[in-house]
Design goal:
Chain lengths: 233, 233
């Protein structure tokens, strides 16, 4: 056995969480200032080491729950970051995860556990520790990709939402405006977006029709649609 | 420093390569029988441990090059597999990569280094060691996703190819047939697929028109097309 497993290459494995949220219609990420060495005082993603008796996924979930107090947050592994000198003092391989938090509905919890955590808009980030900027860049690219192909956007929307709200969300994540008519035409072909029949009159006299999301069973090769499913891009 | 870095949770980090190739119009993956314990004699992906002084990406590249003798193979990280007991005797976190090999052009190299490596069709795999079946399932899903959104398919095609060849490749990867007329219509809207003007008459009297792939500069928000770019699905 000794020839196969060599203790020489044992290393630390960490997790880092890129937690996205919408605040004041801007796409933000949760950061904090490190309270310990190395790099004390610098801006960082939230993370921690993987313990011997927990899976890497569980470690990420633990970090997220400890910070936000929430268990049911959408979370997706982004990949491993394994450059030799990515941390100054030790060899640490970090597995990054991105998470989506509906800030408006849940902002009471965030910050109550970690006093130093703050939402920072992704288009005006401070210099970050280690390779955390690269992690955010990759998470953003993954979010933009995944939001086209999956119903991820509904993780960031409240239970009921207007189409204007939904469009603003896409625009914020993509970083550019969408044509309103094309957007509504495409949403019209999405069977999972259901008209509730309710009108929200808090924003305007005419009001905004409220929609909700209902999960559809995923297509299999047998029942996949003959046309490409509509996506927003 | 001691409070932050704890040696108690040091572990081994490995890489595993899911190497895809097309053989006899079937999507295959490169496997070998382990020549050592644990699990000697069982079918496995090709992998190895990450050394202290190499990045995780470099380790994957090293494993691939050692096996195939090739440096310029397309390779993409799939993610980390970190269940506590994924290997029986030690805690090992493995980072999986998938690679695409153009077998018909390069099959002389593969197998010359590793005598035990063989191509096995993904739809008739033997029982595999550890979580390697899960890795292949995820790699296949990633390949099917990425081939829609990126010019990945050209990594598996020769320099010049017929549209029938290209369609067969998509069908093999997706696992279901595509409509020929729709396929050709979509390819017609891809500016990166160039008609060479050459006809390959080796397969039929009428011959097949040969195309080639020319890389386009990626769209930016400023010059992105007003219509969704064509994809094959």
């Amino acid at each position: 056995m000794q020839e196969y497993y060599s203790d020489n290459s044992m290393m630390l494995v960490a997790v880092d969480c890129i937690i996205f949220g919408l605040k004041d219609n801007r796409l933000c990420v949760l950061l904090y200032r490190r309270g310990f060495e190395p790099c004390k005082g610098e801006w960082s993603l939230l993370g921690g080491f993987v313990n011997k008796n927990e899976s890497v996924d569980s470690a990420a979930r633990r970090v997220l729950t400890t910070l936000t107090g929430l268990n049911d947050v959408y979370m997706q592994q982004l990949g491993a970051f394994g450059a030799v000198n990515r941390e100054p003092d030790r060899r640490v391989v970090s597995v990054a995860y991105y998470a989506l938090l509906n800030v408006s509905e849940r902002n009471t919890s965030v910050g109550s556990v970690s006093d130093n955590a703050v939402w920072v808009a992704v288009d005006s980030l401070p210099p970050l520790v280690f390779d955390h900027q690269e992690m955010i860049d990759m998470a953003l690219a993954a979010l933009r990709r995944d939001i086209k192909a999956t119903p991820l956007v509904f993780e960031l929307l409240p239970e009921m939402f207007s189409l204007t709200h939904m469009q603003t969300l896409y625009e914020t994540i993509y970083g550019y405006p969408l044509d309103k008519r094309n957007f509504r035409k495409r949403v019209g072909t999405m069977p999972e977006v259901i008209d509730t029949g309710l009108i929200d009159k808090t924003g305007s006299r005419r009001g905004a029709r409220l929609f909700t999301y209902r999960k559809q069973s995923p297509p299999t090769p047998e029942n996949r649609p003959s046309h490409k499913p509509s996506t927003i891009s």
